[in-house]
Design goal:
alpha+beta; four-stranded antiparallel beta sheet; 15% strand
């Protein structure tokens, strides 16, 4: 059960977020889900509160709270949005939204929201199914998958016992039969069958010996590990298949989105006239004009 104190703390932390939290979360939430309907869930002095307002607030909560379905915390979400509407209305009535500092913060917020919305729209348009399939094919070509071995082994306590097993195999003994008779490992009942495994799943001496064998060969020299002495038979080898397209779709879309976002930002930068200054007002770029201050250029006297 979720700690009610944690919920109260999370909502209290958002109490003075005002429209900031709601607006910042809205573009991301819009991309995640598009409900068929966006009903009015409350009115505050005639102003409508929509279900999408609650969804936006929910998307901006701390991760441990965000995991809770919105239906389970509907009431506190609704109360928080109502509270925000009431306080924001009082702030506007007092003219706070017209002060230079708040106007600047609101412009910054609007820029961020528009940036997110623009990039999300561009990515949705550009990341087509064809591009995703092409990206997956390139991924699959580069990632053949980790090599795996299918092997059997016979585990005994001493090197002498292991050497006797090798001698019996050299004389035509059946590996599975000898495993059932001689092995002290849990796989003995299956004739020493270990199934498929990757190199990292076995201790290093065992893995090195198994992957050095050719298909159908067994170790002529017993292999020692902390478990005892092994005689290993390599039955087959393969490479893991790459994950299927659908399992990679979301990750590929994110990767393509990042590439497209970087390209779009670079395109806009190249097309724009940008002049940068340091905190002291001096130009950061060669050839840039000095920043004007109080009607005159920095460093120049009238």
């Amino acid at each position: 059960m979720t700690d009610s104190r944690s919920l109260r703390t999370a909502f209290a932390a958002l109490a003075f977020a005002v429209p900031l939290a709601l607006a910042a979360a809205a573009p991301a939430q819009a991309q995640q889900s598009k409900p068929a309907a966006d009903p009015v869930v409350a009115t505050v002095n005639g102003e409508k509160v929509m279900l999408s307002d609650l969804r936006a607030l929910h998307a901006d909560l701390p991760e441990q709270i965000r995991k809770i379905p919105i239906e389970r915390i509907y009431q506190p979400l609704l109360q928080q949005v109502i509270q925000t509407k009431l306080l924001a209305a009082r702030a506007r009535a007092g003219g706070l939204d017209k002060t230079p500092a708040i106007e600047r913060r609101l412009r910054t917020l609007a820029d961020r929201v528009l940036q997110e919305a623009y990039l999300a729209e561009r990515i949705d348009e550009a990341v087509t199914e064809d591009r995703l399939v092409k990206a997956y094919k390139a991924f699959a070509a580069k990632h053949k998958g980790e090599e795996e071995a299918k092997a059997r082994h016979i585990l005994v306590k001493t090197k002498k016992e292991a050497a006797a097993v090798v001698e019996a195999l050299d004389k035509g003994g059946k590996f599975a039969d000898l495993a059932r008779q001689k092995s002290i490992g849990p796989s003995k009942t299956g004739g020493g069958d270990l199934g498929w495994f990757a190199r990292g799943q076995m201790v290093k001496p065992f893995a090195d010996a198994a992957f050095a064998l050719k298909k159908g060969d067994y170790t002529k020299t017993p292999v020692q590990t902390q478990f005892g002495w092994h005689v290993i038979l390599l039955e087959d080898r393969r490479r893991q298949a790459p994950p299927p397209f659908e399992a990679k779709r979301a990750e590929l879309k994110q990767e393509l989105g990042r590439e497209l976002m970087a390209a779009e930002i670079e395109r806009l930068r190249n097309a724009a006239k940008i002049v940068r200054f340091g905190p002291d007002g001096k130009p950061l770029d060669a050839g840039a004009p000095a920043r004007k201050k109080e009607g005159k250029e920095e460093g120049k006297e009238e």
